[in-house]
Design goal:
13 helices; about 475 residues; Rossmann fold; 16 strands; alpha/beta
């Protein structure tokens, strides 16, 4: 292989540039050219295929900084339609004109779902990224537990994809952390760092004003981010994988509030009620990947608690004038996806990017670079076939947090959940992650100099295919 292409698809994460950097560095070692496709799959759908030569003279371009969040290539949520043979044929022709011998897609489960068609026209591998940590398996064979029902059939707790309801049958697998496939994805550690820090900052406000704070974190149907936010020491943790028991929750809040005059709750954006219905799914609209847009689990939970606790509970204690004034929400939102990646993400993202190049050189296609962990070996690189993640009907489901990670009675991480988090975060930060706050945040030049976007410099490097 003499020339490879790389793109970033789906939502941004803090470690994308680090993954690109690792891939480009490895390509330079093998004297392989690396082209970056602008704006993910959208760039391939563009007849002129905007692209950037990332390693002229086999040296990474200076704009490619692994400590910079986001992606210098830009990202989009456009995906290749696997059923559109004409579209795929046009992409194949464009890649041929660019003389691309292999393609690296940096993305999550949505990218992996759309990568199948490209693997039929050019060797393609995935370097994983997602802050949700939902790309992977709790154990091999997990996709076989999915059941697809007839269209329009009414099924409890079903996930609807392409008109078909999907449900999971009960698992009889004995869970072990060492058997997880893709233990953790780059972007997750930094998002947890932001989430835990946000919880700590909200704490002092709730504590000072005798209030109940509900902090909503991202993660959709997967509770990994909420689980990791336990590092911020919230009083209560609510995850999508366990149904909300409102009576028990209200009693627990009262216990905590009576004792310490405030309470901090962390909830995942995809938490569900006793009937399995998403609290935040107020609108039926979807994002470009087909996922239902969750419009506010924290606000729905706040309304529920206002009703259940009532004004008298707070006024009788002389702590607030009403339940509405006492209970407030904060969404950490996109702050979890942006900014400088911490050491764990930078290091392993670069390693996975380099490994993706090695996989192509070994002749692999339709495969995934993965980060494994065992108690004996620690973290190490490996790979898996994309079909290992697919159910019997070819669909790739987002990984849910294993139920054993959470204690639904204490509303806290379980011992297994703690054992899962410790290897990731014991050495997740480097001294420079802390030093950068001192040296860069309050740089006096920030007061006088405008922000200089890397997009300006990348735009000067973009090249296009000529019109055919």
């Amino acid at each position: 292989m003499r020339r490879l292409a790389i793109l970033t698809a789906g939502g941004d994460t803090p470690a994308l540039n680090a993954t690109i950097y690792g891939a480009v560095t490895r390509a330079c070692q093998h004297k392989i050219e690396m082209y970056g496709i602008i704006k993910g799959f959208s760039g391939l759908l563009n007849p002129r295929v905007p692209h950037v030569h990332l390693n002229p003279l086999f040296t990474p371009i200076p704009e490619l900084d692994p400590t910079r969040g986001g992606t210098i290539l830009g990202a989009s949520r456009d995906y290749v339609d696997v059923d559109d043979s004409e579209q795929i044929a046009r992409i194949a022709e464009r890649l041929h004109r660019l003389r691309i011998d292999g393609l690296i897609c940096i993305g999550g489960d949505g990218t992996l779902n759309g990568m199948q068609a490209l693997s039929d026209i050019v060797p393609t591998v995935l370097a994983p990224k997602t802050i949700d940590n939902d790309l992977g398996l709790n154990y091999r064979g997990e996709p076989d537990e999915w059941i697809r029902h007839a269209p329009h059939e009414t099924v409890t707790d079903a996930i609807i994809k392409d008109g078909y309801p999907y449900t999971r049958k009960p698992s009889h697998h004995r869970f072990d952390l060492d058997q997880m496939v893709n233990y953790v994805t780059p972007g997750f550690a930094t998002a947890v760092y932001v989430s835990a820090s946000g919880v700590q900052r909200i704490r002092t406000t709730a504590e000072s004003h005798r209030r109940i704070a509900i902090v909503e974190v991202m993660g959709r149907h997967s509770g990994y981010l909420a689980l990791g936010a336990a590092y911020g020491q919230p009083d209560i943790l609510l995850v999508p994988e366990h149904r909300l028991q409102i009576d028990m929750l209200v009693e627990r809040i009262k216990e905590i509030y009576t004792l310490q005059k405030h309470c901090v709750i962390v909830c995942g954006e995809g938490i569900v009620d006793e009937h399995g219905q998403e609290l935040g799914a107020e609108h039926a609209s979807t994002d470009p990947a087909g996922n239902k847009i969750l419009s506010g689990a924290s606000e729905a939970l706040r309304a529920l608690l206002i009703q259940r606790l009532g004004d008298d509970y707070f006024t009788s204690k002389r702590r607030n004038e009403s339940a509405r004034a006492a209970i407030f929400t904060r969404k950490l939102g996109h702050t979890q996806r942006g900014g400088r990646p911490i050491l764990f993400d930078r290091f392993y993202a670069a390693q996975l990017g380099g490994h993706a190049v090695d996989m192509l050189l070994r002749g692999m296609a339709n495969a995934v670079a993965i980060l494994q962990y065992t108690r004996q070996r620690g973290f190490f690189l490996s790979e898996a076939q994309a079909n290992d993640f697919r159910d019997r009907w070819g669909y790739i489901h987002a990984r849910l947090m294993h139920p054993s990670f959470y204690d639904p009675r204490s509303l806290r991480p379980s011992p297994v959940g703690i054992d899962y988090l410790l290897p990731i975060f014991n050495n997740a930060l480097a001294p420079d992650d802390v030093e950068v706050l001192r040296t860069e945040l309050f740089d006096p030049s920030h007061l006088t100099m405008p922000y200089h976007s890397v997009n300006v410099d990348i735009d000067k490097r973009i090249r296009y295919l000529s019109e055919s």
